[in-house]
Specification:
Alpha-Beta Plaits; 6 strands; two-stranded antiparallel sheet; elongated; alpha+beta; about 35% strand; four-stranded antiparallel beta sheet; single chain
Length: about 100
């Protein structure tokens, strides 16, 4: 699996913004990606050292529009903690 297939996009929420100061970043990732895949992908794409990876699977919510109903897509988030001596990810610097 390609590194760019593993990392989909950054998480843009208050929780992920609060972790930027301590070098903890959130990403939406492929649902089949393991923690090892995520660690390798982040290190390859951003040229940083990853200390730990925490993942969370989020089930889609029920949405209704009149009589029809359906579920939003299931997603997987990964919260990546960088090592203390690693450089910060430049993309998130303007957000923190």
């Amino acid at each position: 699996m390609n590194a760019y297939d593993v990392i989909k996009k950054p998480v843009t929420s208050e929780k992920s913004y609060s972790g930027i100061n301590i070098k903890k970043y959130g990403f939406f990732v492929d649902r089949n990606a393991t923690k090892t895949d995520i660690k390798k992908a982040v290190e390859e794409i951003f040229k940083v050292k990853v200390a730990s990876v925490n993942t969370v699977n989020i089930k889609g919510k029920l949405k209704r529009q009149g009589r029809t109903q359906g579920y939003t897509s299931d997603v997987k988030k990964a919260y990546v903690q960088l090592t203390a001596d690693s450089k910060a990810i430049e993309f998130f610097e303007s957000l923190g």
